[in-house]
Structures
1.
Amino acid sequence: MMEPGDPAMRTATASVLFVDVVGSTELRARLGEEAADELRRRIDAGLLEIVTAHHGRVVKGLGDGLLAVFDAAADAVGAGVAIQQRAPDGVGFRVGVSTGDVSVEDADVFGTPVVEAARLCAAAVGGQVLVADLVRALARGRGGHVFEPVGDLTLKGLPNPVAACQVRWQTGSVAGTVPPAGAPVTGNERAHIGRVDLLDRPAGTRAPTRIPEWNTVFLGRDSEMATAENLLGVRRLVTFTGAGGSGKTRLAAELARKRFAGLPGGACYVDLAPVLRDDDVADTLRAALGLSPATGVQPTDRVLEHLRESRALILLDNCEHVLEGVRPIVVDLLGECPRVSILATSREPLEVSGEATYRVPSLALPVDARDADCAAVALFDDRARLARAPHGYAESAVSAVVELCRRLDGIPLAIELAAARCRTLTPDQILDQLTARLDVLAARTHGAPPRHRTLEASIDWSYRLLDEAERRVLRRLAIFAGTFTLPAAVAICASEDGPTPHQIEGTLAALVERSFIEAPFGTLRFRLLQTLRQFLLQELGNSGELNAVAAAHGARTVEYAAKLGALLPTADAEPARLQLEEEIAEIRAADDWLFQQADAANLFRLHGPLRLYWYRSHPGEGCERVGRAVELSGGELVDRTRALLTLIEAAQQAGEWTLATQSCARALLGAEGADDPLVSAQVHTKCGLLLCANGDERGRVLAASAIGYLNGCGQPYWLIDGLWSVGLISTHAGESATATTHFGRALELAQQLGHRHREGRRHPGCRGKRWFHRRRCDNHT
């Protein structure tokens, strides 16, 4: 696995495809060497084309195997099907697909999903695509493919049987038969491949957050789509309102894709559900647009500058709990960015001038007991089939389905939860059980609106049908404020007396299938709908597990921050920063929890490694969060000093010079008592520069003294940082020769080591003068 301090190694979540040619030795003997080589070149070119067309990255494995990695499970399945459909005459392919956490090291990609995909490939017969059950759960409903269970396969090299499915597609069929469970499987446990960067993005940039995609068909909203599209044609701000579970997010996402996908500025999705404070809304929008923070520039100004000439759509999802933060940025966007449209979802209107509101209605209900053509029944029918009910449901059950949709008030979430149970219950049984639950809830909650009672009853009923192990996993997952990965779920849900990681993976796949959990971007990141999450948090509190789970979540986040924070001062800084950006909701939630517990020790351990993250991504928020942490008592002195360095870095970037200077004094005291030469050198470098900016010549001595230690400490990033600081001080003092020497060495090291953000400093002398000038100007405002 990836060690925290090893910059040559990194992890990523991906879907893995292994493809092999069946009987390649016999084929070569039959065709002859020359013809076989030509066929092999054609096959290689065709496979590369197919994988690339499905947004995958392909490399060669050993022998006749080929390994490809994909961000989305549906893309991997689609590529496997396309490979079978385009197989040359006389050539048989077998394909295996798995998904999970893989490690990337130099020229190798490895991990359980790689082994599992290779073993599934070897277990397949010619013309067959075998996939792990989690792949099916993530890819179902997309591409017109049908997944047929083949049972649990015992595969060599894997400790547990793998629940597998074979794939059928609309225009073809699967050849051959499934080998019996336990059949011997051969293959390479580790694929040796050309270098692949699963996180390959341009340095310092990030594409805007894309609109979510679901792995189910969008049904029953033609009229609503037309109405909303007309509204967007005449108004630049449209807000979808309605209760939880009404389908606001899905309708908005489908509309955004239909109307704005081709715009030059595109469409940017901003999920506000994990945002806890009004003050963080603008910064969340900035991050969603892929914009880095700028020193002394407020997030709102950064956003407006970027969008002022753009023709784009901003989709603000789940606004209701941060309306005070949403309204100002919306007003500014409408006033200063004339070609930007805004689509918002909220349980109540934004109440901004120019806003058009549209209350998303329930799905159309049946007009009589035999009306099976309405939208509500169509949704139930589709989701029941996805639940792998053998043949949908009997004709005689139509009246029960109609009545069920009526009792559920046409609420999409409630219908999906009920339909997911068609694998084990008939519609009549579902109706009887839900009716009883609705009656109990109605008697208990006289003041609640009927629609709210209906949704709560359907959620509660669906939850009670899970076995205790499934309920335990599901309510624990509610601790995640945003999206989460499979390894994160395992870290929170596994315990000595609880499920194993393999069991958690299976449970997660089952919960996705039953509509409790979404994988809205098609990748291995999951999330709970906020309506479900609020219910589950109450259940977590009622179970007595909340404190223990929150503590586990905090510990996991601290560990994750240390792991990725160690990569920030390396050439792999940008991939690490982007991974932290995906985890920002969890960092915020863990920080809030630890602060409530007055846990100074873990707060310092959380924020110390995030020094360069807060500085580069959210300096204003970093000031606030780290600033309150260092006011607590407790914790190790060296950890407190690292947290103070984080605070100084964030405050400097945010233009909070008074806070930075005050924190310097505290950090210098900490450096004296902390038995850590690297921390002391970092404090002397950072504080020396700020002292000089305040006219205190002691800073020059401090910064220069740090260079001696940094030269031999094996931490090149911090040596570059120290050289740069001394160069700035020398520039300010008019010592151009000394400044040029230090700047030149810093830039040379940065180029050698691939520190791109350091390489970008092309005019150090001018930069140094501007830095001191800006510092003094800010100090007098």
2.
Amino acid sequence: MQRSEIQEKPNNKTRVSLRYTQATFRRSHRGRANYTWRDCPLNLPKITRYKHSILSLLIILKTQTAWTAGDTTTTLMPHLGRFMLSAAGAGVNTAAGSGIGIFGGDVMQPVYGNDNGFLFTDFMGDGATGNTFLVSPGLGIRQVIKNQIWGAYLFGDNEKVSLGQNFWNISPGIEWMTPHWGVHANGYFPIPQTQVMGDTVFADNLGNYDYVYFVNGTHNQYDALTAPYDVIGNGGDVELAYRFSFHDNLASRAYVGGYYYQPSTASNFTNITHVKNIPGITAGFEQSLNKNLRLSLMNSYDSVNFYTIGVRLQLTLGDDSTIYSDNVHDRLLEPIERHVGIIATGAGTYDQLGYQNLGNALEYNNVFFMAPNGAGNGTYGNPMALSQTSLDTINTQSPNSSRLYFQGGGGAVYAVNSTNTLTKQGLQLYNGQDLYGRTANYTAPATSAERPVISINGDTAGVGVDNGFYIQSGENTFSDLAITASSTNGTTTGIYVITTTEATINVENTSVTGLSRGLYAENNGTDNLTINANNSSFSNNTANPAPGDTFNASGIYASNIAAGTLTINATNSSFNGNMITGIAGDNGNTASGIYANNTGAGSLLINAINSSFNGHANSSSNNNTGASGINAFNTAAGNLTINTTRSTFNGNTNTGTGTAVAGISASNTTTGNLTINATDSQFNQNSSTNAQVNGLYIIDNGGHVNLNLSNSSFNGNTITGPNNGSADGVFINAVNLNMNVTNSTFNGNVSDSKNVGGGFANGLEAVVSGTATITVINSQFNGNQALNAGGGFQAAGLLVFDTVTANTQVSISGSQFNNNLVTGDGANGGATGFNIYHTSSNTMSIVVTNSQFNGSSASGNGNAGAAGLYAATGVMSRRI
């Protein structure tokens, strides 16, 4: 308080002496001025002499009573409160990987108190792009005691967690703050801790086979029946923070913390699937940018989300904590630190999927047990042998739905030969007969070397069979098996499907290798035939045809004959190393991962996801052969579509006298539509010594081609040896073309003619005779080389050749066409970044922006030239 002293003198004359405190100004949370006082003397004149000084004194006294430090007068709504908005982004370092945006707000309103402390309400909430949210109303108290803030609060959290369930949490907390330090500790107690979230499921469908058992003399399988629950748990967190300033009195805050959540251990959740306790640590840094903006960097690590990082921007109104000071009153409206380390969700806690064991129950009553030396009726303890007689019996007892369990465990071989099949077609499977490789005790799927082997004795010299299994309709599954051949006549097929009605073939966790064709599928009707290959291998199949024969070595060979739809879905599977050897026939023989032909008005669809089509080889001596990852034909008015995602088509080779090598070879011979979409895929290092080689090869003779290439590579495809062949990353010859290329590379393709003949080496070559639209964005066409050419030759990053009445539009932006090279003494060649041969009578439109055409060169004694962009004759509209 200001102090004044009135001293009585002996002469009874009064002199007023005022001692007051001069002030340094600051704003309080109520928006009023306060003063920090320090005493100094001030002698005023006598009031009898200076009457106007009385008025000045009254003003000073009035001011002193209205603005006091730490006003202890308690009132309703002692402050206007604080309002905050935030926006954050977070990324999670898990196997799947994820990133989300989080948007939130927080309002704190003091309801009763004074400058030294108050009761308050707080309402905070978050919402995330992952469809999680948090709504938290709360009550609390903060009190300043000796320049320290002590606080306690209680919140009710309503949250929607990552698995889509809603939970309520009771969340108490305490806090302590000084001008520099701060500690927050919180507890979280969900009510309840679990929420049921779906239908019951047996434990083996969750990958847990500990509860599977069988009963002797029956076809029954029993397992633990479980119910799925969204599981959270009691938890808590603590944060220790240090506050300081290093620039313009803007507050900085560095913090470390930890959190721990213990999911419910009731209901056997951890016995079926591993629901973890969640211990975690966190650290971060927060920097005030000005009085109203804060930027935060956050990081945490725990046993569920592993490393999580985030960045957050906060807009705050009504809070002085962004400005550093030594007075703790400035922190009274600072946001409460809760849900410490929980970064990668809009909810307040992390949840997990748990399963409650409801007890054992009958799962299947149609299991037939098979053994290599079985001689029984197929019940548990009395297995049967693999034979056509057994399959017939199973179909009689359990038509349209049966599970055949093949005993594995290592060394289990099931022969398919002329002694246990009724025809040379192989073993005929009925609709719904599903084959499963199992462990030696049948309780779990066989893996790796435990898989039972189906060994096919191919027909040689009239002895044996043509196929392992023969299917005419319906649904069949092959799971956890190894299908191979003990001998092959060059056409031996593991699974042979020929149907006129709807059929679905599933091949899962199975290897189909060492044959001529892993799977042959033919759709002769108007219905759908679907082949699903998941986590399987169709590799190392070989054909050695005699002269005049037409054999193909392929993982899958498929034909769509009529107006139906044939779909091949290859997911996480391999189609590698299939091979043609010997003297091939005259009608074309191909080594390929998938060979598919659409000869009718229907549709052929091939989807390759996370799969490989590599290393196919053709060493035969016929001119009509090739090697491709996928070789597909559309020979009628139907539709052919190939979609590849994160797949590889690399290292396919031709060392014989064949015609072509390609990662994908696709042909549209009539008026149909051909569509290829390649995303995050590779078409690299395909090679030949005598024939054309391409990462992607497309021929269209009258239809329409749609080509979309994104984030893919077509690099290092090479042809060497005396030839007139070409090595292109992509080669297209089409009537009508719509092509979009984005963020892809077409680099380092090489044609080396060894001074005999000529050859092309282009990143991408497109020849069109109809309407063409070509768009190239942020791609590279560099370092393609035509070497040692004895005849005509060409090396270009991008070559466009439009003929006849073509109407072509080319748009290029942000791309590179550099360092393409030709050498040799041949004539009529050149090295160019972008080469245009325009012979059409129509105008070609070319628009190029922000692109490079540098360093291409030509050398030798021939008539060769070099240019960044070269345009031959014709009418052309260019804008560079």
3.
Amino acid sequence: MFDNPSKKSPDTLRSARWFAPDDLRSFGHRSRMMQLGLAEEDFMGKPIIGVLNTWSEINSCHSHFRERAQDVKRGVAQAGGFAVELPSLSVDESFTKPTSMLYRNMLAMEAEEMIRSHPFDGVVLMGGCDKTTPALVMGAISANVPFIYLPAGPMLRGNYAGRILGSGSDAWKYWDERRAGNITDEEWLGVQGGIARSAGTCMTMGTASTMTAITDAMGLTLPGASSIPAVDSGHQRMSAACGRRIVEMVWEDLTPEKIVTSAAVRNAAIVAMATGCSTNAVVHLIAMARRAGVDLTLDDLDALGSDTPLIANVRPSGKDYLMEDFFYAGGLRALMKQIEARLDTSALTVTGKTLGANLEGAQVYNDDVIRPLSNPVYREGSLAVLRGNLAPSGAIIKPAACDPKYWTHEGPALVFDSYPEMKKAVDDETLDVTPDTVMVLRNAGPLGGPGFPEWGMLPIPKALIKQGHRDMLRISDARMSGTSYGACVLHVAPESFIGGPLALLRTGDIVRLDLPNRRLDMLVDEAELERRRAAWQAPEPRYERGWGYLFQRHVGQADEGCDFDFLTRAQGRAAGEPSIY
């Protein structure tokens, strides 16, 4: 147990400010609790636990959360606390348009303000779908009230006609085969019905599993919680255990500022690289770190990536397995045990114990799924950071998920200014394109998208698909799904919409990618670039009102984590406890 000499007592609980005083305002608070059918014995002197639930009927990743919230509340009651469930914005990846990333910061703000404004002594955060994990954690870090994260867990393996299907990854693959005329409509519909068979997040190592693994490695979940499949009975037991543990954390006054340290952030980054993480990890991890006052940079991540072997043989960076197999092979605890020497095992976690203590006894049960360091999937980590005259503030590539022949490549650019323009062109079988062509999409960044959409896995032109080609070099200032693969350079910063160098590139210009030297350049002389820069005109803003207006005025660029400028720790700590009068 965490040895904290300043443990809480009932009279020092945060919720006591709302309920304990003998005054008119607290009388009102107590009477409204009684209006709910509660007696003072239900809530007075007990830790009050907020359960922030991102369930919704349109978020299939979280379709089991109604039941899991009940498991959490059962655990809270078992430990002597009182649980209050609140609905939170459900930022689902599948249906939220133009992109769920537009609303990550909205959920982060909502979580922070819900925690601060209510009489919660501790919080259980229920999320999993891509943006919900970083959003909830960002908000809770800023609120600095004890919290524990409950990951939704991956869905079961997909299946069609005896073939194992992986979320996203196989959708892209079979779509290309359909465009090439190699599969029937019946087979396509069979894949559609078989690729998502249960509640839970994508079962590839996409953004959802990446971000829950990062949160697990950062010490913010129960050990190994991120690996448990959503529909496994162990997930119910883990949910109840979250309820019990958060009550103990309140008494121990175990706040996030004691857990989310530079060591914890570094551990999370190393684990992310070893898992074959989504490229989206870069944006979210930087934002999460900066909420805690840890100045994580692209160069830090590149250095860790170049020194961390990828040992999780899970699609899309791995070739053979999915998250269910990863769980059976020992899960994240087993993977962290393999790289234990690279981690700071003294880092504190929500268990009140160190990371090292949490890893005791962890074992690998299938060393083809979780590889030993002597036999990695890829000898460097999942991601690499590129710089050059096309991306002076950085760009991201996932080397293990693309054809190695594109690691060093030079070819003519084919530039598109919008997704509709690009989509129309790639379906034109007469398009003037070769395997050496470098496809470029711009105006798809945080401001240009708007919202930094997942458009970066540009479809291979139909003309090349029919010739048998399945990869080519593609560059954009967009993101891409963590379930995607291919030679895609992403997050080019500064983005073209604000005049970044990508805005100056023209069709026919030669582009050079030099992955070994971490370079991305257009071979255009500086005098010509200056002429183009002088002629460039800024596009009209995307929004004139509402959330989009706030977003475009305050969102940071990709290399800064795309958080709002007024929400990072650099802007100072958030306001203290609310006044109660």
4.
Amino acid sequence: MKFLIIDDDLDFRKLAIHHLHKEFPDAVCTEITERHEFDAAMKQGGIDAVITDYDNPGLDGLEVIKEAKKLDPYLPVIMLTASGSEEIAVEGMKLGLSDYVTKHHVSRLPVAVKMSIESLRLRKDYDNTVSLLRTSEERFNAFMDNTPVVCVIMDEAGRAVYINRAFERAFNVTPDKILCKPASDVLPREIARISLSHNKEVLEKDQAIEIDQIIPAPDGDSRHWMLLKFPLKNAHGKRYIGAIALDITERKHLEEKLQAEKDTSQSYLDVAGVIIAALDSAGNITLFNRKGCEISGYTPHEILRKNWFDVLVPARLKDELLGIFQKIMNGGIAEYTHFENPIVTKTGEERIISWENAVLTNKEGEITGMLCSGNDVTERKHAEEERERLREQLFHAQKMESIGNLAGGIAHDFNNILMTIVGYGNLLYDELKNNNPALGYAQTIVKTSMRAAELTKGLLAFSRKQPYILKSVDVNDVIKHTSDLLLRLIRANIRITTVLTGKDCVIMGDGGQIEQVIMNLATNAQDAMPEGGALTISSDVVDIDNIFLMTQGFGNIGRHVLISVSDTGAGMDKRTKERIFEPFFTTKEVGKGTGLGLAIVYGIIKHHSGHIHVESSPGRGATFNIYLPLAQKAVETQPLEIAERPAGGAETILIAEDDRDIRKLLKTLLSVAGYRVIDAANGSEAVDLFTKNSHRVQLVLLDVVMPIKSGKEAYLEIAKIKPGVKALFLTGYDKNIIQDEELIRKGIEVIMKPIIPANLLKKIRETLDK
């Protein structure tokens, strides 16, 4: 503490300092007697209290009070005097004296100092507070009276306790007309009811609410107000409702005008037959017309302001398309004026859209987004894909037809060659004696040639130029033979196992076609096991009864041979299982499958009056179960033995064969058998020769397919020349190729090449003897 002591009596100054140090041990006391000393001390500042004598020759006590208070109104000044004159005290108090102490009671000085310091501190704090409040109130009033926003404070009953000038102007009222008046006295009844309801909501929730309200103006017009009401409390906890309101009538009119213009523009966009969309630079949708909503399935509310790439782009394409869009927005690449990609609809369906795009820029030329128009080309694309699929099917069908024709042609030519080998082999066999070691060679040639003939039957069946040859077949034998072939054809990392039943597994069928079924299924199984696995082929005999029909949904009642082909491959989902037997359906890559393998399998099984069923699921392999009717007939075996040559004859036979070697063979064979032979190289020559020799020709032996004139055409002309003439046909194709009603009615038979000479001679003899 720092005290300034003014007194001309040194002893009294010492006494005063003594008493001050008792109360304020660290006090610094400055003793002065002259005016200039006082001025210097006051200028230096930092004084906590001034203690002055009333009657000081160098410096008057009342003057000290005046000067001290002038410099600091809150500086305590205590007067010491020898007399206790009340007049002096009153005069000092008027000038701002803090206390008055007589020298006879100097011990009271510390108390007077302490009380004066505290009293003036409190007075200073009070004055500062009052000043701050006055300033705050002035600021508040200045703000509230100059703001264009209408402001009002209401008590809990809804009575206004404060309104600002904007309120007075807006509603043409003075405070005396509205303050402390019930809401029902100053507002229309319905608006008063709504206002009190809002006040109640604010107080109950103790939070602000925003209100959009139409309130009548003094001129009778209605104005649109946006109100914000909020809870208030004063220093004593009393609750009020504050409200600020902004007249947004003009803004509403502008918004309505803009909305009308927008609706008009939107109607133009909505009548467009294409999607029209706008995106901002982040990919958020800012415009989406009616066509876009129809195709996507989203409403405007659901789609606007959503991100295009999050909502409409398939997940597999999102990164790629978003990357392109961002580069366009950054100016990194030129815009894609035309683009085609799918969108995902609300239901998850994908639609293919052909887009025309243009970037949007601001007046500074900066890219701000993209405008897009899109045409739904899904149906067109599907039609194009369907046309392409049909074109591929046609191509495959034509290719298969070409292959079939080639196979039929090869089989025909091969049969002609085999005919020659078999014929001369038989002639050689007849010429050799029993003890000739070459006899076995001739027999082997004939037998091997007949096995080769069986191969050509398969080619003809493939080319559809020979029907299925149904006979009793042991399925176990077919599986054994096929598995032997598979061991050489299937990759080494696939283990092949056969599990054959000990029961009789005889069916009426074409063994070669059943082999093809197993081969096709095994090939598919191999493709399903690229890393290797197990392939199991099994057989069994099962009964299909009513319970089987009800649980499985297919089949015919009776005993069936069951062929099962199982693999440990990738398996199939339900959708794939439903389509695997469709022609041209394939899950393989382009160029690695025709989609015909299982369709052929299905067709073969149906031709055998059977059923095929697949059991499979993804990752669990597949099992194809084939059900074929069990036959009671024993397996037919035809040993390849060379028959003894039957009786010949002396009749004249006209042969017509375009293959020189076969023609020579037939002539030799018939001549050796005693017949007289006239040979022709084609159908036209045969007709000419028959015309010249019709009186002595008893039988015509005609090849079906010949140049210039076919065997059938030649026969019809010959029959006109000599009705009832006997005839036989030879063919390397399916013998049914010329089986029309007219020839069947005449009892003309067709012999398939190659034929064992003995069988041919037997058939000729039978025909001549009819």
